[in-house]
Amino acid sequence: MSRRVALAIFLVGMAILVLPGFFAPEFLTAKDGSVQGAVGPFAAPPLGTDSFGRPLLDFVQQGSRIVAGPSLIAALIVMILGAFGGLLACTQSNRLSTAVQVIGEILGALPRLVVVIVVVRVLPEEWRGLMPIAIAWALLTAPGAMDEAASVASRLGGSRFVEAMRAHGFSRRRIYLVHILGYNLRPVLIRQAAETFAQVIFLEMALSYVSMMQTDISELTHGSQEEGWAGILYDGYSYLALNEPTGHSLLLGLALVALVLIVVRSVVYAGRAR
Amino acid sequence: MSSALIELEGLHIKHRERTLIQGLSVSVQPGEVTALMGPSGSGKTLSARACMGQVDPGLRVVAGSLRYPALNETDWLAPVVGQGDRANAALLKSTAPLRGAYFSYSPQLASSALNPSRTIGSQLALAIARRQSPPSSVGAAVAECLKEVGLPAYCSKSLPSALSGGMCQRAALAIAVAPQPRLVIADEPETGLDPILTRAVTELLLKVCVERGCGLLLISHQDETVERIGARIVRTRQEAE
Q1: Are A270 and A11 in contact (CB under 8 A)?
Q2: Which of B237, B177, B179 minimizes the C-alpha distance to B209?
Q3: C-beta separation of A17 from A68 below 8 A
Q4: B84-113 pLDDT, tens digit each
Q5: How close B85 gets to chain A, by Cα (Å)?
Q6: For residue A188, what is the DSSP state?
């Protein structure tokens, strides 16, 4: 598969994941009874309904709205901090490198899921949502990305590579932005950002699923009027457990999970070095 | 007016109170090989970099003059002597157009000279783009450069990681000479190579420079290599102070 094909798959996948969020309805409402009976193919909701007659397309759209912004911001944070870590390894600023390394080690040593739970519990009710969780997750993931980017920069030769490039007559800006960031750190940063993007989406699905299973836990990642992609999987689970006719929900939920993984793999493939 | 490609006289560089280089003078004539020799840590690389107008932050040029007589009579070190980092940065900027064009540099390790994420061909194309008169066909020029250093044509599409150490060293040499510089500064090209490859690479370097009529400033600490190629020798002193 060429990089262009991978890029095209990524763009189409991202469009499918993100764009529905812009058209998401405010509330999920069941269609009237006629829809659940025998109707023509164009009158029925395109992806079917859940056990309560609510269109699954609305779930997909609301899920997109919930995860798109926070997961993309988390990916961006990881990418920026990773780039900072990589570029820092190519400079001779030992004090700053040490300070960043110490902070990274402290952050990296924290158990991420515990921190996420603390964030969820500590934040006031009105601030709760996926965004603070995603930012916390990104900040805890970033030290790993910075370390990996720094090791790539070190393998490159660090400041020796910069000096060699300078001796070839390249400007500092071109060396850092094109030769180091563009050519060498790009694959690592894209992979780390893509993984974080997927992690935040799966985290949202997991937390939503938990709050659906435990009725005493309120929604952790979105408002109580909204349903995310976990709702689709939750509805589909009754097909496995109780043999209810919700297999289409299960398939749709798994398809969304697969789409996230395809998007991640395709962008990693498109961003590889060669 | 002298025909020398480079004239460095009385270079004296300090780091705080420690003298790193004292009273070093080097000149290279077109078609001539000058070897800069000395033990490890005696400032050979620092001197070579100073020849290109690269003085690291934190270092202070106490005395010296640097001219490229084949170009003009400007003393490039005059604004830097006795000054600090800001003057060093200004020198670095003002000499940038000369690096990779008037002179080129081949660092100690080929791995430092080659970008691991770019094919040898694309790196050569970048170097060729710095020629004063760009060729009509970059592809043909890349093939010619590879042939000149004895690399097969398929290396053009290879990443450095796909080549052996000796091939990488040849590729680094090809990149150094691709811009058709008037002076090549080779920093210990024998580093990391076995004796047979060392000889092959040094002789190749010499052959390419002689054929092109450019000067060669060879940094080395191997007497045998320098004696064999009959270079004029300039020695750096260890721990000048």
Answers
A1: no
A2: B177
A3: yes
A4: 889 988 998 888 888 888 888 888 777 777
A5: 14
A6: H
CB B225 within 8 A of CB B190: yes
pLDDT tens, residue by residue, A192-208: 999 999 999 999 999 88
Residue type, A1: M
Instruction: Find out whether A232 and A63 touch, Cβ atoms under 8 Å.
Output: yes
Supply the DSSP symbol for B236.
P
Question: Per the structure block, which two tokens stand in for A48?
Answer: 């079917």
Nearest to A184 among B99, B112, B116 (CB): B116
Residue B16's SS3 state is coil
B contact residues 48-87, partner A, Cβ 8 Å cutoff: 49, 52, 54, 57
Cα nearest neighbour of A161 on chain B? B112
- Is the C-alpha dihedral spanning B86, B88, B90, B92 positive or negative? negative
**pLDDT score, position A274:** 62
Strands (E), B48-140: 59-67, 103-106
The two tokens of residue A52 are 């309560």
Copy the structure tokens of residue B64: 């010296």
Distance separating alpha carbons of residues B147 and B140, to the nearest angstrom: 10
Predicted-complex ipTM score: 0.72
Q: How far apart are CA A208 and CA A220, in angstroms?
A: 7
**Interface contact flag, A161 B99, Cβ < 8 Å:** no
Tokens of A43: 């009158």
Low-confidence ranges of chain A (pLDDT < 50): 34-35
B107 chain-A contacts, CB cut-off 8 A: 160, 163-164, 167
Residues 6+ apart with CB under 8 A from A42: none
* Tokens of residue A38, six digits: 């025998």
Distances (CA, A) of A73 to A60, A65, A181, B35: 20, 13, 20, 55
Full DSSP string of B27-45: EE-TT-EEEEE--TTSSHH
Q: Which two tokens stand for residue A160?
A: 């020796």
